[in-house]
Design a protein that fits this description.
Largest sheet: 3 strands, antiparallel
Number of strands: 5
Order of helices and strands: HHEHEHHEEE
Radius of gyration: 19 Å
Structural class: alpha+beta
Strand order of the largest sheet: 3-4-5
Helix content: 25-40%
Strand content: 5-15%
Distance between the termini: 28 Å
Length: 203
């Protein structure tokens, strides 16, 4: 019932472990390392320093997740927000190619997308709203979509029986695929954990 700021760090970790079933232990070779930087206090060149710092500590970086794209500056220093966001994606892409790892970030959709979602919430039966969102709903800068390799709209959605899902709509990919959309159900009574179906029939 609260935002994350309403909990202590141990409480947040506890919720992720107990409700989200996040398991980090000696049996798993993968660690999650979090580095906080104040809003727009660094540009994308920081990623290279971070990579080197992790390497010095004995970590092999296998994925970088940056949250949120508007919180980091472009190394190019473009003053136009629209152009800068395109530059940031380009610089992420160069870093990803040089280090041979995925770089994942997030951006919000535009007002039209918010209107589509809000309209569905006012209906008696709200379902499959994510399928109504697409490229035209990119927020701030269409250059982000031009420059990235994969673009996915992620949204909480419902089926006709009002069961809750996390829906994924593929709006950009550089390889040919017919796999455009899927919706993963949440575990019953849990707002964090989704049903696990790895190596089983899709849920």
């Amino acid at each position: 019932q609260y935002g994350m700021e309403g909990y202590t760090l141990p409480e947040v970790i506890g919720k992720l472990k107990n409700e989200g079933h996040l398991v980090i232990n000696d049996k798993s070779p993968i660690d999650i390392v979090i580095r906080y930087k104040a809003n727009r206090s660094v540009d994308t060149s920081y990623l290279y320093s971070l990579y080197d710092d992790m390497d010095d500590l004995g970590y092999e970086m296998i994925c970088l997740i940056q949250d949120h794209i508007k919180r980091i500056r472009s190394a190019e220093g473009n003053s136009d927000v629209r152009l800068e966001l395109g530059d940031v994606v380009n610089e992420f892409k160069v870093f990803a190619a040089e280090k041979d790892i995925p770089v994942i970030t997030v951006s919000h959709l535009n007002r039209d997308a918010a209107r589509v979602v809000e309209d569905s919430q006012g209906k008696k039966i709200k379902s499959d709203v994510t399928t109504k969102l697409g490229k035209s709903n990119i927020g701030e800068s269409f250059l982000m979509l031009d420059n990235l390799d994969v673009g996915i709209v992620v949204n909480v959605d419902y089926d006709q029986d009002q069961n809750k899902y996390m829906a994924f709509e593929l709006i950009k990919v550089r390889i040919k695929t017919d796999f455009k959309y899927f919706a993963q159900p949440f575990s019953y009574g849990n707002s964090i954990r989704m049903v696990e179906d790895f190596n089983t029939d899709p849920m």
